[in-house]
Amino acid sequence: MIGVIANGADQEVAREFFELFKTPWEFYRPGQPYEVVLCAAEVPIEVAAKLVLVYSGRKTRFDDEQNIFIGHQICEFRILAYKDTQLPIYGSTVSFHREGTALLAHHESGECAAFFGQVGGSAFVRIGYDLFAEIRALLTTGQPPAQAHIPTLELHIALLRLWILGCGIPVEEIPPVPEGYRFIACLTHDVDHPFLRKHKWDHTSIGFLFRTVVLWFWDLIGGRTTLQNVVTNWVATLKLPFIHLGLAKDFWSDFDERYAAAEQGLPSTFFVIPFEGRKGIGIEGAAPKRRAAGYGARDVAGIIRRLRNTGHEVCLHGIDAWCDPEKAREEIEEILRLTGTAEIGVRMHWLYQNGQTASVLDQAGADYDSTAGYGVTVGYRAGSTQAFKPFGADRLLELPMHAMDTALFYLSYLGLNHREAMERLAPMFESATRFGGCMTINWHDRSLAPERLWGRSYGEILAELRKRDPWFATAGDAVAWFRKRRGARFVTAAGEPGKAQVARPGADCARELPGLRLRTYQPRTIGEFEWPSVEDYIDQPLEEVGAGVPALRER
Ligand SMILES: [Zn+2]
């Protein structure tokens, strides 16, 4: 059991952090015995534990008492490093004057940023940054695109676990890994352009012609397309007049069939725009005219029905729901009317969001949002592979979006070719396997059709995912599983203060979800700080472990 000391303002962040690192903890109560005390405020004088972790990006009273010599205090972005692992820090850091091995060092100067010490019979780790300030920054503003590739929040969890184990103390947790699988894979599709025939002489159709008639040569020499695709696109271009006359099949309108063929029965999630021709409110003033979609959800009612009948999820691709509570309700109702479901998720068109979005969507009745991601690159905006509860929301969870086709391939964004895109994604497959959680892919509705023809990359992503044995889930099911994990609790064992028992959540009758597992890490010899491998822990299904403890919630 970890006793956590946090300032009042950081308590909600601490609560969320320990939903993501689901291990026994409570706010520190004086006089209680703890194996580990995590201190993110001033260290109380009487604190006694096997291990005290002191996080602070400034000089503390603890430093004076332990004769710790502080080096530089820096209040700007820094990269810290432990062996090959880099950890970005967005708030203040201090360095320490000391010899010997550091548990973290400043990447550029090599100065010590965290170290391990022993006083009497107990150990301490002094870490020169503010943990909860970092977690708050990640879950609110998020990381800039330059650090997108680093799953920073997962690393904060991994380092804390590493330090506890390296001080000879075992760790119990419920990892973000569904029972029977390695991680969760969510395949999602933003439906922006389901009908080419609805675009006569607008931005979309002119862009189509520009890319098939002019840009093909640059794409070919840049390795971003193949000769076969160029020819396919020329044929598609010749068909354009006939599509507009209704004499040829609109090759954007069968996106559901193209995805069914590519995904071979895997469940996926489609985000559909509610109303045609609304550009909506912009981040600064009115949104550009081209944000307005050339269709509304009712135009694809038949496709929605087919998708629902074949095990897929259909949700809201919101226009104004990110900032206007009334419009959020109107947009949600329009999609619910067509899907006939009780719950609905949201991803905003053009990934619009601000600090109020979570609370606006929550109050409008959305189950989850999946907007937190980058339009310009791929990676971890919140630094996490896990669904989390944004501050300001009561129930809504945020399912991060990790990799989007247009960010990979558009020249104005990463502009990668197929091989480079797969290389860019390779460490993300690794991170999903290492940390668990979810990997959320967004491939747009028209991306398998001319003129994008990005089916080869999508096929390879699916093959790479399948090799790693994830639970393929709709976004709604993935969120429900994270909610089920949040429902599990460690409770103090009767008569054994400091020892935790796990109470499993009650069954959610509405969905069939994989189980949870209890993971127990064996401790290391004191002072041995090595990343744990699969040999260092044992997993047990939570259904068995929690059998003796009453379920928390029965429906
Ligand atoms: Zn969109």
Write the layout of secondary structure elements.
Blueprint: E1 2-5, H1 11-20, E2 25-27, E3 34-39, E4 49-55, H2 61-65, E5 70-74, E6 78-82, E7 85-89, E8 93-96, E9 104-106, E10 112-119, E11 122-127, H3 131-139, H4 152-166, E12 171-173, E13 184-191, H5 203-214, H6 216-221, H7 227-244, H8 255-263, E14 269-272, H9 301-309, E15 313-318, H10 325-339, E16 345-348, H11 357-363, E17 368-369, E18 397-398, E19 403-404, H12 405-409, H13 418-435, E20 438-442, H14 455-467, E21 471-472, H15 475-487, E22 489-492, E23 500-503, E24 517-521, E25 537-541, H16 542-545
Parallel strand pairs: 1-2, 1-3, 3-4, 4-11, 13-14, 13-20, 13-21, 14-15, 15-16, 16-17, 17-18, 19-20
Antiparallel strand pairs: 5-8, 6-7, 6-9, 9-10, 10-11, 12-24, 22-23, 24-25
Helix pairs in contact: 5-7, 13-14
Descriptive overview:
With 555 residues, the chain is an alpha/beta fold. It has three domains: 2-173, Class I glutamine amidotransferase (GATase) domain (Rossmann fold, 3-Layer(aba) Sandwich); 184-195 and 252-480, Alpha-Beta Barrel (TIM Barrel); 197-251, no CATH class. Helix content is 30%, strand content 20%. It is built from 16 helices and 25 strands. The strands form five sheets. The chain has a nine-stranded mixed beta sheet with strand order 2-1-3-4-11-10-9-6-7, with helices on one face. Strands 13, 14, 15, 16, 17, 18, 19, 20 and 21 form a nine-stranded parallel beta sheet that branches. Strand 6 and strand 7 form a beta hairpin. The two termini are 29 Å apart. Bound molecules: zinc ion (ZN). Zinc ion binds next to loops.
